[in-house]
UniProtKB/TrEMBL annotation:
Organism whose genome encodes this protein: Mauremys mutica
UniProt biased composition (Polar residues): 65-85
Protein name in UniProt: Battenin
Pfam family, one: CLN3
Location in the cell: Late endosome; Lysosome membrane
Amino acid sequence: MEPDGWQRLSDSEDEEPPAPPPACATCWRNLAGFWLLGLCNNFAYVVMLSAAHDILSHQGAPDINGTTQTPPVTPPSRNSSNTSRYDCNPISTGAVLLADILPTLLIKFSAPFYIHRVPYGPRVALCILCAWGSFLLVAFSTTVGMSIMGVVLASVSSGLGEISFLALTAFYPSEVVSCWASGTGGAGLLGALSYLGLTQAGLSPRHTLLLMLSLPLAMLLSYYVLLVPPPAVPQWRWGDSAVLHDPLPAARQPLMAGAPAKQGGGAAELTLQAKGRIVKGLLKYLLPLALVYFAEYFINQGLFELLYFRDSALTHAQQYRWYQMLYQAGVFVSRSSLRCVRIRHIWVLALLQCLNMVFLLAAVYFMFLPSIYLVFALVLYEGLLGGAGYVNTFHSISLESPPEEREFAMGVGCVADTLGISLAGAAAFPAHDYFCRLP
């Protein structure tokens, strides 16, 4: 029996009027489901970046009672020479960024060429298990290496989830794309704000991470309970993936919001040549998006730690957490703005983000900004540009891709932001070392 809201036409009903669109309850369940999936999918990734400063400089060790000892207060400078003008960790926070993004990059580069053969059910189950493992491993680790392994698990969960859920939007009306994007923005805001708020309230990083174990459970309920999958989606049986390669009979095509042309999953498997043609056609979106994300994550993981105001009432760690929270607030607002503002020229956002990066790079070198509140405003602006680049890119890809190519196009589109983030993490290392050696 088909889920409520999904209708089939039998051979004997070919002459009857078209079936009505799905029930409003089903539409709202799908919209809410994709919003929550975006929230849950990116949550662990965001929390690991918000905790990057703590992971590298405040690695707690369990005492004899099993509780986390409070780390000592860090001195004004942590570099070996003790003469730098900056308050530097021995390792750039770009290390956490690379651990949080390189596994995602590997998944996204390779997955569009084989992931369609794996049913969605096992994919989502793996995402949930990796998210749980990431929180537990980082919470109970006593070395930076163990924490980095936990960050890698968060990356696997986020990367596999993003490419799977974006591909899954091809089976639904295009409105779910904006809900997914808004949910990922909400993950940034909620993840950074919850980590900031709980640690500001006096909770240790370990107990803060343990409280966040409920988010993978929310992903489980969102996908397996809340979302209403159409008949064409391959769920658990590996044989179900054949629906992605063999055209569905007309009688089995799902009718969604009266727009069956919007759906994916009803076309034969794309050839390698066709995939190459699709990627080439997407470059006008992929390259600007990669540049947007390179600039903003170079700011986040290469410059945030160096934008330290010694006369502020906030400690260095608290300043870093506030930067992350304000950035994510900007991302959430802009990723939720598609119904109000549509930006077709992504290169404009890339140019503005690069100018923002150059200005903050100069601010770090010359140290001319008089107040941390100016940095707060610039970081919020940075998040607005990044979120706008993401949601407008994927909305444009969804609208412009033919139905038979949309699932692959949405999957390959999410490689761009990951590539930009990875390059930013690599660039953060030499930048960190250069600035921290300055007298």
